[in-house]
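Problem: given the chain below (128 residues), write out its structure.
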Amino acid sequence: MRNLTWDEFDLAVHGLAELCRDASFTGVFGIPRGGLVLAVSLSHRLDLPLLPSAQPGCLLVDDVYETGLTLEPYRQLEQCTAMVWVSKAEPQWWQAVEVVQSSEWIVFPWESAAAAAADEQAYRASRP
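Solution.
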């Protein structure tokens, strides 16, 4: 497991904000549940409203792109930009602060290590 820290979180938020520097968004939507903490922080950093649902022209954020299952449903939303902290695949239609070539489970600073271990076990059991 890779345990990310709050200092790394601050750097990631800064990196995401830099990627947004020249863009204009209607607001920020965080994909539940991992994207919510990032969305709140970016909402403050970019002085944009935190949106209760994704809408055209918004910034979509999530913690990790692993299989794309949580981000893919938003792919066709008009004029949206999708960003993640960590991507385990080379970004195509989304952007990432960090791209890793690892199957290592990531524990974000807002997560419980025990709950993350259970999540990893359930995730791996659900894959062939």
